[in-house]
Amino acid sequence: MDKLDREQIEEIIPHRDPFLLLDEVTELLPGERVVATRKVRSDEYYFQGHFPGRPIMPGVLQVEALAQAGAVAALSLPENRGKLVLFAGIDAARFKRLVVPGDTLTLKVEMTRMRGKIGKAQASAHVDGELACRATLTFAIAEREE
């Protein structure tokens, strides 16, 4: 698979700026596994208030970035094209290091179970090979309403 840039990612998932948290997909096995990256920039909107003088990427946005990467894997399957992936659960989330401007998150998501429209995935985010966060994500595939 060739790498996917932001424009190609936007063809798969509906997220847009300022909430698209993926810059590139570097590995993709549709419905199985994805590796993506996010360069954390100092001008991110959330750094204005989280925290002035000590910018730290919120953990919930790290998990959202993982979910968006997982959505790329799920929605890359032909039968899921044009649909949405929604959170159904976040379990065992752990945050192991601060993520700050200048860091590049490497987001890894592996689908572990898919039954009908409900699935589970193991997800982790790393910075320079060091674990930043991990979680088990449960998701539902839904139709988009126009």
Question: How would you characterize the overall build of this protein?
Answer:
With about 150 residues, this protein is an alpha+beta fold. Helix content is about 15%, strand content about 40%. It has helices at about 5-10, 60-75; strands at about 25-30, 35-40, 85-95, 105-115, 120-125, 130-140. A hairpin with a 3-residue loop joins strand 1 (about 25-30) and strand 2.
* Overall tally of domains: 1
CATH class: Alpha Beta
Query: What general outline do the C-alpha atoms trace?
Result: globular
Number of helices: 2
Estimated structural class: alpha+beta
The proportion of residues in beta strands is 35-45%
User: What's the β-strand tally?
Assistant: 6
- Poorly predicted regions are none
Helicity level, as a percent range?
A: 10-25%
| Rg (CA only) | 15 Å
Distance between the termini: 31 Å
CATH superfamily: Hotdog Thioesterase
Strand order of the largest sheet: 1-2-4-5-6-3
Assembly of the depicted chains: single chain
Look up the CATH topology: Thiol Ester Dehydrase, Chain A
How many strands, which pairing sense, and closed or not: the largest β-sheet? 6 strands, antiparallel
Can you write the helix and strand succession as a string?
HEEHEEEE
- Just name the CATH architecture: Roll
Mean pLDDT: 96
Summarize the helices and strands and which ones pair or pack.
Blueprint lengths: L5 H7 L11 E6 L3 E7 L19 H17 L8 E12 L8 E12 L2 E10 L2 E13 L4
Antiparallel strand pairs: 1-2, 2-4, 3-6, 4-5, 5-6
Provide a compact summary of the structure.
The protein is an alpha+beta fold. It has helices at 6-12, 59-75, and strands at 24-29, 33-39, 84-95, 104-115, 118-127, 130-142.
